[in-house]
Amino acid sequence: MRAHYFQHVPFEGLGSIEPWLKKAGYEITGTRFFESDELPDLKTIDMLIVMGGPMSVNDEDKFPWLVAEKKFIWDAIAKNKQVLGICLGAQLIAGALGAKVYPNKVKEIGWFPVYGISSKEHSFRFPSKLEVFHWHGETFDLPMGAVHLAKSDVCENQAFQFGKSVIGLQFHLETTPETARNLVSNCRDELVVNAPYIQKDEKIISVGSETFKSINHLMDEVLSFLTKSKSS
Fold first, then answer.
1. Strand partners, 133
2. Phi/psi of residue 202, each to 5°?
3. Which pTM was predicted?
4. Second CATH level (architecture) for the domain 2-231
5. By the 8 A CB rule, do 39 and 50 touch?
6. Could you read off the pLDDT of 29-77 as tens digits, one per residue?
C-alpha cells in the first residue's frame, strides 16, 4: 500500500499521521509544492493526504499548481481512493467537488471545541464535544452530497465526509507539540491581540501532553475508518 501526501509549506507536515501510516504498513511518498509540483501516477497510490497551508484555494494566480492539484484530488475521489484533507486540504477537496471556499466571519486560531453532529449510517462519528487545534481564516460550503460531521461555535462546516472514503477536516488532529511550535514560529503575524478566537502563542503551545494524545488518537480513528471503509 502507498500513501501519498501533498505538502504546501515546509512547516505543515504529516505530524501524527506519519507514525500511523508506518505502523499500518504504508509506503509514504509526497509532493512538496514549495519544492516541486510533480504529481504521482494516480494508479500507483492507495491513499491521498492533503495537508494545510497559509495560502487560499482561490490563489491560483499566485500558485498555479493549485489548478493541477485540485484536478488530481477530483480524479482521486472519482477513482475511489482514500482521501483525507486537513484545513487547506479540506478546502481543496470541497473546491474540487464544486463547493465555494471563502473567508470565515472570524479567524479561528488555537484550541477551541468542535461538536460532532452526524449519526448517519456509514459516516464517521465525532465526539459530541472535543477540544481541537485550529488555524484557519477561510471556510467552505458543504459539497453537494457530502455528510456534515462537525461544527464549531464560529465555523459551521468543520468536517465532512463524501462517499465512504473521503473526509475533510477544517481543524488539525495531527498536531504534535513540535508542529504546533512550528506553526506559531512561522505564522506568528496572524496572532493578533484582542481577537476572541485567536489565542496567544504561549496559550497555544502550553497545553498538556494529554490534549495532544487525545486529538492524535482521534486522527488514528479517522485514518482507520478510511482504511476500513475502502476494504468493506
1. 111, 172
2. -65, -35
3. 0.96
4. 3-Layer(aba) Sandwich (3.40)
5. no
6. 999 999 999 999 999 999 999 999 999 999 999 999 999 999 999 999 9
